[in-house]
């Protein structure tokens, strides 16, 4: 079977502290049919100097203002030419062998591939494996989004649409709900694909995420009652989570939560 061409997108904005590690993790994959795209939001630090250092290993670069994360994702997807598209953000790491594992799992009729994500607390080097959710119902939150370890066929984005630019925090959940409702075929790949560094945009902004949960439910055909229920669930969940984090410590609580 022919190996698929895989496009990896990294979006950046003033990412000089972590970007080089991200780039190295992609360009050292030793996967022959790799296309690498970097979408920069107009960085003012040394981000573009780092990009230039690895320019010979990068197929497409653009640096210009955008309308947020979802807009940057979409810009990368539009310019990607691979059969499969993955997104590794500028503070995350694509783990060794990930693209070969993905290629080995490739089937022409699969739309979305979902691998494991390793959550990394880089303050104390504690790592926790997270297995992705594979069923998506509006009545339940997608607890294990595993964005960094999700790879989507380009044709799926072209047919079902990419990221909703009105969402700044819950864009991943919206895509997964939408694809599932449309009948996209998902496949689990039992491999640790990516390292997610704690502390990114979606790790904070509680109130804004709460508002977007409501909008994601409505956008995907849910009722106002269901949207209110999901918001209430989010509030209660975060209260319980906060208590457990205080009692057990965040790392231990995370390991129990993900059964590590």
Can you describe what's shown?
The chain has a single domain, classed as Spore Coat Polysaccharide Biosynthesis Protein SpsA, Chain A, CATH 3.90.550.10. It is built from 9 helices and 9 strands. With 260 residues, it is α/β, with parallel strands linked by helices. The protein is globular and about 50 Å long. Strands 1, 2, 3, 4, 5, 6, 7, 8 and 9 form a 9-stranded mixed sheet that branches. The mean pLDDT is 92.
Brief overview, please?
The protein is of the alpha/beta class and 260 residues long. 38% of the residues lie in helices and 21% in strands.
What topology emerges from the helices and strands here?
Layout: E1 6-12, H1 19-27, E2 34-40, H2 47-53, E3 60-63, H3 69-79, E4 84-87, E5 93-94, H4 98-105, E6 112-121, E7 126-130, E8 150-153, H5 154-160, H6 171-181, E9 186-197, H7 206-219, H8 224-248, H9 250-257
Parallel strand pairs: 1-2, 1-4, 2-3, 6-9
Antiparallel strand pairs: 4-8, 5-9, 6-7, 6-8
Helix pairs in contact: 7-8, 8-9
Question: What are its keywords?
Answer:
260 residues, 38% helix, globular, 9 helices
Write the CATH homologous superfamily.
Answer: Spore Coat Polysaccharide Biosynthesis Protein SpsA, Chain A
Global morphology = globular
Tally of separate helices: 9
**What percentage of residues falls in helices of 4 or more residues?**
25-40%
What would you say the CATH architecture is? Alpha-Beta Complex
Distance between the termini: 35 Å
**Low-pLDDT segments, ≥5 res:** none
Count of distinct structural domains: 1
* Number of DSSP-assigned strands: 9
Indicate the structural class. Answer: alpha/beta
Please give the radius of gyration in angstroms.
18 Å
